[in-house]
Amino acid sequence: MFSIGDKVVYPMHGAGIIESIEEKEILGDKKKYYVMNMPIGDIKVMIPLDNVERVGLRDVITKSAVYQVIEILQSADEVSSTNWNRRYRANMEKIKSGDVFSVAEVVRSLLIRERDKGLSSGERKMLESAKQILLSELLMVQDIDGNEIIANLENLICAQDI
Length: 162
Prior knowledge:
By secondary structure, this protein is an alpha+beta fold. The protein has 2 domains: 7-59, Thrombin, subunit H (Beta Barrel); 63-158, Methane Monooxygenase Hydroxylase, Chain G, domain 1 (Up-down Bundle), CATH 1.20.58.1290. Helices cover 49% and strands 22% of the residues. It has 6 helices and 5 strands; from the N terminus they run ββββαβααααα. The protein has helices spanning 52-55, 63-74, 84-96, 100-116, 121-141, 146-158; strands spanning 7-10, 14-26, 29-38, 43-48, 58-59. The protein has a 5-stranded antiparallel beta sheet. A hairpin with a 3-residue loop joins strand 1 and strand 2 (14-26). It is globular. It starts with 6 loop residues before the first strand and ends with a helix.
């Protein structure tokens, strides 16, 4: 169970802070909800307490885990499928997992592919989404401006000689 003020990650949406726990009646069904403020996009999300495990709500990573994210971003890209559809599905599964390290792999892979071969419009949208998810979590952990984090991420990856 999470508390007000906890920094958490909602897979496919990103990281935010639990602002409150409210009881709401929706379609005649009363449930308790976490009300989560998402700093990127300044939106609020309501997550039913009884769905927390199913959706994969989790604590943000620790500061020490940020170094693991950086290592992933700096590592060589694994050989991904040349089939666009297979590559897209594999990347989507990684993003849906809610695992920050898997999301970092997607960001790295797509940034490298964008630099080397270009991206389809679907992969470009996926890259933007994955960067926002990764950025939101890194913002919760580090006290750095979001633009600085994105620039640092892209510099880490684009500096590679692959």
